[in-house]
Amino acid sequence: MSGYHIRKLDTFPVHTLKRVDRPTIKILDDQVKRVDERESGFNKAVRGDYGSHLQKERMRFVPKHPISGALSWMTAYLKDVVDGLVAKQKAPLPEDPERLSRHIKELAYFLRADAVGICKLPPYAVYTNSFPDGQPIELNHRYAIGILIDQDWRTAEAFNGHDWISNAMSFLAYSTSGFIACIMAEYIRRLGYPARAHHARNYQVALPPILLWAGLGEMCRIGDCVLHPFLGPRFKAAVVTTDLPLAVNKPIDFGLQDLCSKCKKCARECPSGALSDGGKVMYNGYEHWPTDIEKCTAMRVGNPKGSGCGTCIKVCPANKPYTLFHRAVGWAVRHSSLARSVAVRADDLMGYEKPTPEKKWWLDLEEVDGVLRIPSNKGD
After folding, report:
1. Is 314 exposed, middle or buried (0-12, 13-18, 19+ CB in 10 A)?
2. 3-state DSSP helix/strand/coil percent for the chain, to nearest 5?
């Protein structure tokens, strides 16, 4: 899309970012195989692959805290409204894909999205089979719209990374992005074009390839996750796939491969030791920093001192508020390798990874056998 459109619409100054033809990690498009949704860490835990304890904890690790439980309960209502009937006649729309993309992005921001990007749907982003029934997935839409929701900086500043609010932060963003995606998909269907929402309760696509190609971030060291240049890793996403003719965004390069190569803070601070402090490797046709999925899942699902885990998000130097100071630092980091080296050291010196208990607002509560109690094992 043109710079004029981007400057007018986006919450953050994405028009200042360097746009590239391909993502900044190596992707051998013809070698990337589609994956089965049932093979994710959480879904393996449900199946019992990681033992009976994690199988049991997987069913309660979100609702064991009442806020994340309430959010999860609400997202369950979105499970069956991802698709629907398409209007018999197409609406009289502008023929210019850029105007339509502007309109769709404006709609997303109207619905309170924090960041939006559009790409052609990579075939390898579509799962082969669904969870839990294993039904084969066929999804032939041409475009994908990525929708990001901030997990809330004020709360991220107050928590320690793996205490009782962790899952609620995730499901705040999961539920909100899913709500927006379902509305947008229904709107597009009313315009006469097929569209499907994909959210935490009903995905048919893997999100990282879509977010990369839609210019919503670069791949980072944190477990095959995409990091946004202004939100850092502090977001969750939903997607709308559609055949509505849209103009696409280009991928971005803001120096993250260099930053993550130098930083390694998430690997150092990960309570489960799941994140690698080594170099990138090729896997399934693409380049990434490897993660021990079983260790990560065990910590997030089986955490006895909280609900879930977001320590990697908490300690990441890119997890900062959008203040004038941090905007200036972010600009320097995006443009200078030396600034990236300095920023990594300064982040440790400033102690940003430490929680601010005086800003804590939530209650430490744990549901056990239908009864809420003060947890016996509280976090640090």
Report:
1. buried
2. 40, 15, 45
Rg of the chain over Cα atoms, rounded to whole angstroms, equals: 20
Contact 157, 319 (CB under 8 A): no
- Give the integer Cα–Cα distance in Å for 275 and 313: 12
Which residue has tokens 């803070």?
A: 265
Stretch among 3-7, 120-124, 249-253, 289-293 having the lowest mean pLDDT: 3-7
- Give the Å distances, CA to CA, from 323 to 151, 169, 231, 328, 329: 17, 21, 12, 9, 10
Query: Which pair of structure tokens corresponds to residue 146?
Result: 């990525």
CA nearest neighbour of 215 among 200, 227, 233 = 227
* Dihedral sign from CA coordinates of 85, 88, 91, 96: positive
What's residue 4's pLDDT?
38
Partnered with residue 242 across adjacent β-strands are: 143, 195
d(CA 325, CA 16): 17
Write down the pTM of the prediction. Answer: 0.95
Torsion of the alpha carbons at 207, 208, 214 and 216, rounded to the nearest 10: 110
Question: 235, 227, 226: which is closest to 176 by C-alpha?
Answer: 235
Q: Are the CB atoms for 100 and 247 separated by under 8 Å?
A: yes
Peptide bond into 132 cis (omega under 30): yes
Q: Which 8-state DSSP code applies to residue 229?
A: T
State which amino acid sits at residue 64: K
Q: Is 366 helix (H, G, I), strand (E, B) or coil?
A: strand
Task: Report the pLDDT value the prediction gives residue 6, as an integer from 0 to 100.
Answer: 44
- The full set of domain ranges for the chain reads 3-360
How far is the C-alpha of 374 from the C-alpha of 16, rounded, in Å? 48
CA atoms of 371 and 380, how far apart (whole Å): 24
Confidence (pLDDT) at 380: 53
